[in-house]
Amino acid sequence: METTTGADAIDVAIAKGIDFDGSAIDPKKLELYKTVMAIEANRQRSGVVNTMRSRIVRIGAKHIPQDELNQKLLDAGFNPLKEKEIAFYYTK
Fold it and tell me: How buried is 35 (Cβ within 10 angstroms: 0-12 exposed, 13-18 middle, 19+ buried)?
């Protein structure tokens, strides 16, 4: 059984076309995913630091309380959480 942890686990499973439970991923779903990822791959980037912050917020909000994540951002020299990020990630 493939590992289901780590940043690459999803990409490995997608490349194989097999979900973690061993079932095949529907070809239509794979094709749509690949189409969207190809579009994203051609998008002009705003900079590495901006992308790092976006990923920290998007993923960090799943695991770290709002006040703690905000402080970690500030401590690292990033801008604090924006109101729209708080509303999206922390408002239920």
Answer: exposed
Burial of 18 per CB tally in 10 Å (0-12, 13-18, 19+): middle
Interior angle at CA 92, CA 77 and CA 52, nearest 5? 25
Instruction: Encode the chain (92 residues) as per-residue pLDDT tens digits.
Output: 567 888 799 999 999 999 999 999 999 999 999 999 999 999 888 889 999 999 999 999 999 999 999 999 999 999 999 999 999 999 97
CA 1 to centroid of chain Cα atoms: 24
Cβ 37 vs Cβ 26: under 8 Å: no
- Residue 25: closest CA among 40, 11, 37: 11
Nearest to 15, CA basis, from 39, 34, 35, 41? 34
